[in-house]
Amino acid sequence: MSELWPYALVALSMITGLFLFRSELLFLVKHEKTEGIIVNWLKAKQKGREYFYPLITFKDKSGTEIQFRAEERCEGSPMFPPGTVVTIKYLEGKQDIRKVKYPGA
């Protein structure tokens, strides 16, 4: 019986990992891909530094227009002008899970 403990621990670790990263794994398999546009930049100040976050709009598979602030930011000034086309990968129905590919990346 004691010989099974290592296998049980490995199985438990794998199940825990799959549970914790299920959204990311689902994203890899079932994401949608479309083009979006940087429509503006949002400025934020933190500890005296200016950061800029792109405000991006895109249409999902059903044609609904979605606008969101990307998590990526740049310091000092925006990297791309408004109107720049980007590639969006997203999960249908889970709009909080998105990845943005910028020009030249």
Q: Round the Cα radius of gyration to an integer and report it.
A: 19 Å
| Span of the ends, CA to CA | 53 Å
Strand content: over 45%
Uncertain runs: none
Oligomer: single chain
Strand tally is 6
Order of helices and strands: HHEEEEEE
Helical content stands at 10-25%
Give the class from helix and strand content and strand pairing: alpha+beta
Question: Could you walk me through the main structural features you see in this protein, from its secondary elements to its overall organization?
Answer:
The chain has 105 residues and is an alpha+beta fold. It folds into two domains: 1-30, no CATH class; 31-105. Helices cover 24% and strands 46% of the residues. It contains two helices and six strands. It has helices spanning 5-20, 22-30; strands at 32-46, 49-59, 65-69, 74-75, 85-91, 94-101. Strands 1, 2, 3, 4, 5 and 6 form a six-stranded antiparallel β-sheet that branches. The protein is elongated, with a radius of gyration of 19 Å. The chain starts with a helix and ends with a strand. The model has no long low-confidence stretch (mean pLDDT 84).
